[in-house]
Write a structure and sequence with these properties.
heterodimer, A: about 150 residues, mainly alpha, Four Helix Bundle (Hemerythrin (Met), subunit A), 6 helices, about 0% strand, elongated, B: about 140 residues, alpha/beta, Rossmann fold, 5 helices, about 20% strand, globular, Response regulatory domain-containing protein (chain B), ST_Response_Regulator (chain B)
Chain lengths: ~150, ~140
Amino acid sequence: MDVIVQLQAQFVEYTTSLYREGFLDDQFTQLQKLQDESNPDFVVEVVRLFFEDSEKLLNNLATALQQQCVDYKQVDAHVHQFKGSSSSIGAQRVKNVCVAFRNYCEEKNLEGCLRCLQQAKHEYYLMKSKLETLFRLEQEILAAGGSVPMMT
Amino acid sequence: MAFRIGTSNSKCKKVGGNQKICVLIVDDDRATRRIHSALLNKFGVETQVAENGKEAVDLYRSGASFDLVIMDMEMPVMDGPTATQELRRMGVNSMIVGVTSRGQDSEKQAFMRAGLDDCHVKPLNSNTIASLLQQVNKNH
């Protein structure tokens, strides 16, 4: 029982830190509220979709910015999509980088865009790692026979 | 509201007295489609998805009918404003609600002019969905 309590405390502390450090916003809480017995893996499923689509988008962005003649409209379209999908799962820091990224697209500032792409990759992979840790903690709690605390 | 049975590709078939609300979610983002579906399913509503405006228009052309269409603004192949204009031109009078992650009023207004009944920033939340479904229920 002590192990479960310890794991649950670790989960709560870790989740709280993700919100405090701006990795996640309230939208992630809304996703957790949609998870229930009929949809037990909902959050993981949605986040996995986000991971798959984001990595394609980041590749598309890198390719678009490597072109001899950069199509900033296309770059902006990819960034807009990335901003939208990161908002949908509550990935706040990724979304914020996209906001700055779009400004550089509008200015057709290649250097700014390239810098933002690096920042977007950094924030995305950092957030991915954090969420994978969170999901691992959930699995450890469930494997130990406990229930995952609901964040409010 | 016309209900059509038969050759439609819609999984939301309205048959006889079946009054279950049916919603079409049109969005190119998979995570958003999944989230909006889950939100709507919580309200006991049936949902179908389309990846872009052309798929939505094709569904209606095939005879499908929905009580509510949630239409994303920016999509490849056919965007939200174009799809909305086309649906209205076809005589579709379903409630069409636009969603966009663009916050600027001017962009939302332009989308509204395409023929929307309403427009919201995405992702939608439970309160907004509840309010939309209330309006749909009034028309149902």
